[in-house]
Write a structure and sequence with these properties.
single chain, alpha+beta, NADH Oxidase, globular
Length: 245
């Protein structure tokens, strides 16, 4: 394997950081690397908010579910799916813009994920650690108000960046055969593969927590599809102009 593949396979979420700050030049280079990600029709439908104000960082940490590393990391970013800039540019060019299409929401969300992953890979290549913060969507209206996000822009997720102060193990992934299919969708072996993966994850959690966490992948999914569905997101997105027509 080359060094890039080795880097990708070694990804871990980092939630504890040293006090060392990321040099500004390096920080801006990471963002430029993010901008080099693929983007649908060159729309570049994202805006990245670099949250510097300490009080705002503390507020975001609480809004994201009390995740203290949002306030403690060297730099915190909020990646926003943004259709405002591009639609206004099209209007200035003479287009009669149609807003609120579901495809616009998809394009903006996918573009935002791609730019963020480029930033993540660039950061790890420089010895930095990171953690995605989906908890930004716990209170999207409050986050939007704090960041002064206009219509047609929504906060997709955050990212903590900094120098790692921990070395967690790499978390196992699903077996390749469960996610890679040939020619068409085949799920005959999925139940067996997932059961095997549950055993792997149970052992991982037991070892990581010295026996204090006895669970598996399937058990960990249960809250995601019950109490953590974030039912407020549909009305919030519609209120921000993403009508999903």
């Amino acid at each position: 394997m080359n060094s890039t593949i080795e880097l990708l396979l070694s990804h871990r979420s980092i939630r504890k950081f040293t006090d060392q700050k990321i040099p500004r030049e390096l920080f801006e280079t990471l963002i430029r690397a993010g901008q080099s990600a693929a983007t649908s029709n060159h729309v570049q439908a994202y805006t990245i908010i670099h949250v510097v104000n300490p009080e705002n960082r503390r507020k975001l940490a609480e809004l994201a579910g009390g995740q203290g590393y949002v306030a403690d990391c060297s730099d915190f970013l909020v990646f926003c799916a943004d259709m405002k800039r591009s639609t206004e540019a099209a209007e200035r060019a003479g287009a009669e813009v149609v807003l609120g299409m579901t495809e616009q929401l998809l394009v903006a969300s996918i573009d935002t994920a791609l730019v963020a992953q480029n930033v993540a890979i660039a950061a790890e290549s420089e010895g930095l650690g990171l953690c995605y913060i989906g908890g930004i969507r716990n209170n999207p209206a409050e986050v939007s108000a704090l960041l002064r996000l206009p219509d047609h822009v929504y906060p997709a997720f955050g990212m903590c960046l900094g120098y790692p102060d921990q070395q967690p193990e790499v978390k196992p992934r699903l077996p390749l055969a469960s996610v890679l299919k040939e020619d068409y969708y085949q799920d005959e072996q999925d139940a067996t593969l997932v059961a095997e993966f549950d055993d792997t994850m149970r052992q991982y959690y037991l070892e990581r927590t010295a026996g204090n966490k006895d669970t598996n992948w399937s058990q960990q999914l249960k809250p995601l599809f019950t109490s953590k569905l974030r039912p407020h997101m549909k009305d919030f997105l519609k209120g921000k102009g993403f009508k999903m027509k």
